[in-house]
Amino acid sequence: MDDDELPPEIDLAFYRANNPDLAAFPDAPLLAHYRDHGRDEGRPASSAAKRAGFLEVVAREQGRILEVGPYCNPIISGNKVRYLDMAGTEALRKRAAADDLAPERVPRIHYVGTVDALPRSFDAAVACRSIGHHPDLIRHLQSIGRVLIEGGRYYLIVPDHRRSTSALPLSTEAAVIGAHREQRQVHSLESLITYRVLRLADDGQPVLQTRAKRIAAAIDEHEQARNYIDVEAWRFTPESFRDLTELLFQLGLSPLAPVRVWPTPSGRDEFCAVLEKPQR
Question: Topology of 59-163+235-276 in CATH?
């Protein structure tokens, strides 16, 4: 799929057609309206800004696809897809049952663990709401780059931190690069406390008492853990995600460059993005 086959981030025809109040706007005022008002109002300006339209783009990929972290809700299926997760099929089905989800929706997991040792290359990769769960985000992007062919794309659906974990700070390049320099393979205690404790609303007990109990439980969980703990360590907005991935690419820390990052639509808590491994 060529770059010009990806829907643009701003499609004025789409924007005009989906906003009757702007139907009479010529192109230049329409573009100005989107930049000055529409983006902040969450008005989609592209068919790929919402999940359904984005998945139509992913479905057009004709080659081999790797889906990372499907759990019990894979977003793409078929013979061309292989699934990677941190646990095998049966373990994920047991977890889904314990979480009161749908165990039968867990696909056959072809690869368990990280991307590092996969035995084949892929034309594309896709991940839904899992990009923030990797202890070392840079290592993950590097690993995806190694298994993608030149010109291959990483399609991502990413939670918008403003709609889901707004009480927590955005992730910084310093923290992401620091985790990579530490060669972090499991989530830090800081990430666990932040995810398990600080993002939760108070339950009616005195604030300090509540936090103390939750922090103590998080410390115990971290000390007792023998394997991967599922934590969302990294939080983004569309703008911060674009800035971070472009920075990592320019620094040579990631082989993937951002080619599309669509703003979060109104009423949604996620945005869609595409990273690409450039052809040499």
Answer: Rossmann fold (3.40.50)
